[in-house]
Amino acid sequence: MKTRTIFSCQSCGYQSPKWMGKCPDCNKWNSFVEEDYSSAPAGDKERVSLYKDAPVLLKDVRIKEVPRINTGIAELDRVMGGGIVSGSVILIGGDPGIGKSTISLQVSNQLARQGHTVLYVSSEESVSQTTLRAKRLGRPADQGNLFIVNQTDLSLIVEYIKKIKPKVIIIDSIQVIFDPSISSSPGSVSQVRECAGILTQLAKTTDTTVFIIGHVTKEGTIAGPRVLEHIVDTVLYFEGDRFAVYRILRAVKNRFGSTNEIGVFEMSSSGLTEVANPSEIFLSERPKDVSGSVVTSILEGTRPLLVEVQALVSKSSFGYARRRAQGFDFNRLSLLIAVLEKRTGFHLEAEDVFVNIAGGIKIEDPAADLAVAVSIASAFRDALVIPETVILGEIGLAGEIRSISQLPLRLNEAEKLGFKRCILPKNNHKGLKFKNSSLELLPVSTLKEALDISITPGLK
């Protein structure tokens, strides 16, 4: 076996025979690290296919419905598309301390209680530390089919898997695991790529589900090469402030379900608990009689969520006006401010504008455009929005209010939480099949019309 030296980019995995200051693939500076690369022997080039089946016509393929395995955590099952698919590889990322290991241990206990054999590979904690953490979660690890091991050598882990034959494997975390046949250090691009590839091949050939926990960089992306996310079947991200109590689990890639679903959890002394009604939680601390506070309904997959949009407009003390957004797209905010100035006559060029989505949630639904614009106008005028009102609609550059999707789901959620009226696009109202006398519908066609009926200066 011939060994040679290569330089690998620790950001994207690009390889070069010589060191370069800037990676030509991801444009990162000083990201190349020297690694030893062992080429495969010539005899290994003639390999037998891992798949026994020969190519077949698509029309002749018979699809078998494989039942999913429920984890016992409804919010997690929702994000993954209904449960665990046998043979799938699931990557979980998130900031340190946000709950990746906690939910992995909870899944292990739930699956073990159902009779599934689980192997939990705790590479960063000893067996006793993992057991103590399980007890702190209030879940005694007394199942006879839950195995825990502290190991970083992938070859030994593979031997354990062949001996125990578990249904589910949890690797915590992939950055610590190393393959002894590769001379580079654990966490390097070569190690992460090869170890993930071996685990993925093992999952597909043995019909075993593998959960992989991945560290994240300071930019918030999973550490290691991007090929790591391409290899796995599902990528889950934990969002939220580690010092706050609420966590949001979001799927950014899912080969077996939708990528629009989210799961909401609350961090407590007994671990992560499910939040059955996120809308009520997000609005529980909403202030009353305060300008710049508006409620809108967004869709995350098939789930409608009511969230509070907060805006603050103050006189700029500097030579230029600042615009800041938390949980909302900054470019979209700049566009809405420009429409407010051009189409409604608001003078915001000398005003600092701050927008925040309460609860730590990030929204991308265009149906929140009108709510953001109304909250900015309310804060600028220092006037209240009509109480118990939900505001929905997408804003165009001409100041028109465009129609949105799945309006009945949003209206039902608003009605359940006691809202009395809803400002919505006129085009949606024309063909709306929603009969409920308790919710007053106020259709609008322009931004100016929406501001006239939503903001009442006399209330304050």
Short description:
By secondary structure, this protein is α/β, with parallel strands linked by helices.
Protein model, in words:
This protein is α/β, with parallel strands linked by helices and 460 residues long. Helix content is 26%, strand content 26%. It has helices spanning 74-79, 100-113, 127-136, 154-164, 189-206, 227-231, 278-282, 330-344, 369-381, 407-416, 426-430, 447-454, and strands at 3-9, 15-16, 32-38, 89-93, 118-122, 146-149, 168-172, 209-214, 234-239, 246-254, 262-268, 271-274, 293-300, 303-315, 323-326, 351-357, 384-385, 389-391, 394-395, 401-402, 421-425, 440-444, 455-456. The chain has a 9-stranded mixed beta sheet with strand order 6-5-7-8-4-9-10-11-12, with helices on both faces. A 4-stranded mixed beta sheet has the order 13-14-16-15. Helix 8 crosses helix 9 and helix 9 (369-381) packs across helix 12. Mean pLDDT is 86; it is low at 42-51.
